[in-house]
What does this fold into?
Amino acid sequence: MTKPKTLQTPWYDEAIKAFQLAGMSESTQQTYARAVRKLIEFYNKEPQKITEDELKKYFLHLRNEANWAPSTMKICFCALKFFFINVLQRKWPLFEYLKAQKENRLPSVLSPDEVRKILSRVRTFHNYTFLVTVYTCGLRLKEALYLQVSDIDGKRMMIHIHRGKGSKDRYVPLPEETYHLLRRYWLVHRNPVLIFPALGRSGKSASTSETPMSIDSVQGAFRAAREQAGIIKRHVSIHTLRHSYATYLLEQGVNIRVIQRYLGHARLETTMVYLHLTQKGQEDAYQIINQSMRGFENGRHSKHLSRACAGIS
It folds into this structure.
């Protein structure tokens, strides 16, 4: 990881070592280092000189004045708590009761028709192929970006995801149409390693590129297609395709533990959020109850029932 110019201080190298020993991904290391940098910039002094009271005031500022979202606050809490305890050896009482507010917002999902509307408005072949792969395989954005040719198992029709979130490997089913789409796209650039290499301005460098497509470019393509499709739901992003994949599988009767495995969730509770996004289970339950509870009215007590009902108006 390249050291940012604003972090060229003694604590930075120690922080990165601690992050690595804790098994954090490079992305998490960068996120945690960024949280520490913002604290330093806020007080304009080295972190070892920041007091417990100042840290408390900083958290209150983020919550009450900066109005940070609960999810962003949680990341900041975790980053600074880890840094002060494990790097600076500050085991303050603040960390014993410090808790981030939980965010109970359910993720947005798109119906298959809405997904088709968006994808049909994606202008370029590489962005279209990328987004189809994300949706039909339920991948995270970076998992799809870093897919390699060797990850595609055409015989078993599976994709091998290496070092997903939490550094976990997994296999996900590869739909036949997506497989053929990926083959057609690969024949365009023929990069020996990457499925989605950076194209460059002319597109000619894709065959030799050692870096994947730009996150910003594919996110911009998705936003443009979403707007052209007239999808006005809030909080719809590329990651929404993954939520939509999981919800659709659940609606089609796929076991929730199987979905958990495909998504790479460590905890079943994470996958269970999709139960709140579908009415399918509730509708099925009503039909089962309605069918199972028949036969109890056999006419033996119809006389008593008629008298009872006569008094109801």
